[in-house]
Amino acid sequence: MTDIDFYVEATLKKTLLGVPLGSAPEEWESRLGGDFLDDVRKSRMRRDYGLIEIAFVRSAGSWRSVSASLQIHRMARGLDGVVPRPLTDVHGDFSRHVPLDVFRAALQARGGILEELTEPVAGGFRQFREKSTRTSLYVTGKSPQGAAEPGTLWSIIVQYAEGNAVPSHHPATS
Length: 174
Known about the structure:
The protein is an alpha+beta fold. It has helices spanning 3-13, 25-32, 85-91, 100-109, and strands at residues 15-16, 19-20, 37-41, 44-48, 52-59, 62-70, 114-116, 126-130, 136-139, 153-159.
């Protein structure tokens, strides 16, 4: 399996290494490892694994994941340790840039459909949504965004359910 397979599976199945949204922090740690940073604020927590950020909410005394954000643009900087080791063990090396057309072809081969949204997005980004799962994707515009090349995936935002999600992640703030 490749890095593109990982992104497509996250988009279509809303799982990362087999862990579905709605899982507790311990389940994520058992699959992604212990190299993360937690940012806890009252009933919300953000767990940052580098490439992957997971948002949790506390309800009835326990934490449950409500969204996962794949921060693909971080790969463009070539930083060591951005990809958790369990991901490279399964998917091999991750590319610094993921062209939209390559991702879209892989997604369509597995039955996925991307729709481009016409809502304006700040910073020149283009926004797409996978039709069946409503997973959001942000793509760099014509001008490069930092080290990311034009026309490449910036981030993929997988949410548990429309009404239960934490506030949306805007690409310019990640």
